[in-house]
């Protein structure tokens, strides 16, 4: 690396940005792959119901189904309410 | 019984055909009777990379349809005694490959050969699914670049759920990662994902790292599998890869920036 490169390299390292983005999207897609086919529709339906009462965006509801053992699966519903819509 | 190895990636242009040609040729160099099968129906290219494009008479689909037998369709390599190519058809019929037909051809090849290399088309359509369905092992070709890594992960999902081994509850396909077009200079500058980065994300066994190399284009220009260019970095990296595929313990090369001597610093090169 030349001296000039050393001063230039103060900008963000793009490889680490790439790695962070990949880790998030790959984890997300793996979860989706292993979840049942009805999950996306369930997520949309839940979003519709909540929207009857509170105005929220598409990405504020997340539904995951995690298999904790052979007999038991846990459906986890996460809804983020906007600041001014609480109470 | 032959070992069936699929060369796959999801994304196009990452080096599947280059890799199929190199690894198939490498296995033959090591004395194993090998056939490389082109599954890219409609976009045949393995013949060009292997330098036998003018010798194609019958193809994979002809054999499936019973219009020719395997002996007529297999092209014997002119350089190596125990290397054969089964070319893809140029038909536009996407459904030309079906499970029963592919299985029959692979079974017949299996009696004759030690290794069957399936060169998969890009994408996740039926051609790619056919190429991986019967595989015992998979070489997932990946470039150190976001879209390629993501697509490779997608293909890993397919390998573990859509293959014959998965459907029949057999032990899963053995998965290998092959990183191609690797540029240590750019990795050092923080401009390219490193081997470790890709390994962290995909978490499968690393089979080889092929450096970005001018030898690859030179090889395809002349229809010589790059592994035959034993003086080149890419050729040597593929030779190492084949040794590892055969179970040898070979250290990885070409991962770090080559230190330039004074001569090279002054005169370049």
Q: Could you name the key traits of this structure?
A:
heterodimer; A: 87 residues; alpha+beta; Cell Cycle, Chain A; two-stranded antiparallel sheet; 3 helices; flat; B: 269 residues; alpha/beta; eight-stranded mixed beta sheet; MinE_sf (chain A); cell division (chain A); Cell division topological specificity factor (chain A); cell cycle (chain A); MinE (chain A)
How would you sum up this structure in a few lines?
Chain A has 87 residues and is an alpha+beta fold. Chain A has 3 helices and 2 strands, in the order αααββ.
What does this protein look like?
The complex is a heterodimer of chains A (87) and B (269). Chain A is built from three helices and two strands, in the order αααββ. Chain A is of the alpha+beta class. The longest helix of chain A is centred in the N-terminal third of the chain and has 21 residues. Chain B has 13 helices and eight strands. An eight-stranded mixed beta sheet of chain B has the order 3-4-2-5-1-6-7-8, sandwiched between helices. The interface between A and B is medium-sized, with 17 and 19 residues.
Total of helices of chain A: 3
The order of strands across the largest sheet of chain B is: 3-4-2-5-1-6-7-8
Order of helices and strands of chain B: EHEHHHEEHEHEHHEHHEHHH
Broad structural category of chain B: alpha/beta
Mean pLDDT of chain A: 81
Give start-end ranges of low-pLDDT stretches of chain A.
none
Assembly level: heterodimer
Major sheet summary line of chain B:
8 strands, mixed
Distance between the first and last residues' Cα of chain B: 47 Å
Structural class of chain A: alpha+beta
Largest interface (CB < 8 Å): A-B, 17 and 19 residues
Count of β-strands of chain B: 8
Number of helices of chain B: 13
Q: Any idea of the CATH class of the domain at 24-81 in chain A?
A: Alpha Beta
**Helical content of chain A, roughly?**
40-55%
Look up the CATH topology of the domain at 24-81 in chain A.
Cell Cycle, Chain A
Average pLDDT score of chain B:
95
The residue ranges of chain B in which pLDDT falls below 50 over 5 or more consecutive positions are none
Strand percent estimate of chain A: 15-25%
Taking the alpha carbons of the first and last residues of chain A, their distance comes to 58 Å
Organism (chain A): Rheinheimera tilapiae
Keywords (chain A): Cell cycle, Cell division
Family (chain A): Belongs to the MinE family.
Protein name (chain A): Cell division topological specificity factor
């Amino acid at each position: 690396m030349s001296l000039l490169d050393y001063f230039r390299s103060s900008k963000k390292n793009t490889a680490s940005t790439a790695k962070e983005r990949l880790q998030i999207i790959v984890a997300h897609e793996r979860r989706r792959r292993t979840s049942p086919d009805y999950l996306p529709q369930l997520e949309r339906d839940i979003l519709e119901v909540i929207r009857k009462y509170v105005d929220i965006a598409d990405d504020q509801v997340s539904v995951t189904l995690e298999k904790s053992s052979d007999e038991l699966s846990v459906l986890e519903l996460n809804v983020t309410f906007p600041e001014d819509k609480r109470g | 019984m032959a070992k069936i190895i699929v060369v796959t990636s999801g994304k196009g242009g990452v080096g599947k055909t280059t890799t199929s040609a190199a690894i198939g040729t490498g296995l033959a160099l090591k004395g194993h009777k090998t056939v490389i099968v082109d599954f890219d129906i409609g976009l045949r290219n393995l013949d060009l990379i292997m330098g036998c494009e003018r010798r194609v008479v019958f193809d994979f689909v002809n054999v499936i349809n019973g219009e020719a037998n395997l002996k007529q369709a297999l092209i014997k390599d002119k350089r190596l005694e125990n290397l054969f190519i089964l070319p893809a058809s140029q038909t536009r019929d996407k459904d030309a490959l079906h499970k029963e037909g592919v299985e029959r051809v692979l079974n017949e090849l299996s009696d004759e050969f030690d290794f069957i290399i399936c060169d998969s088309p890009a994408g996740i359509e039926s051609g790619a699914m056919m190429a991986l369905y019967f595989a015992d092992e998979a070489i997932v070709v990946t470039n150190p670049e976001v879209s390629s890594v993501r697509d490779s992960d997608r293909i890993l999902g397919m390998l573990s759920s859509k293959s014959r081994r998965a459907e029949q509850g057999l032990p899963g396909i053995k998965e290998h990662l092959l990183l191609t077009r690797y540029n240590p200079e750019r990795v050092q500058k923080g401009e390219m994902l490193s081997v470790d980065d890709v390994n962290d994300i995909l978490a499968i066994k690393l089979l080889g790292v092929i450096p970005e190399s001018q030898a690859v284009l030179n090889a395809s220009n002349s229809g010589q599998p790059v592994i035959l260019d034993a003086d080149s970095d890419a050729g040597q990296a593929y030779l190492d890869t084949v040794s590892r595929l055969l179970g040898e313990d070979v250290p990885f090369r070409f991962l770090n920036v080559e230190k330039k001597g004074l001569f090279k610093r002054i005169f370049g090169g």
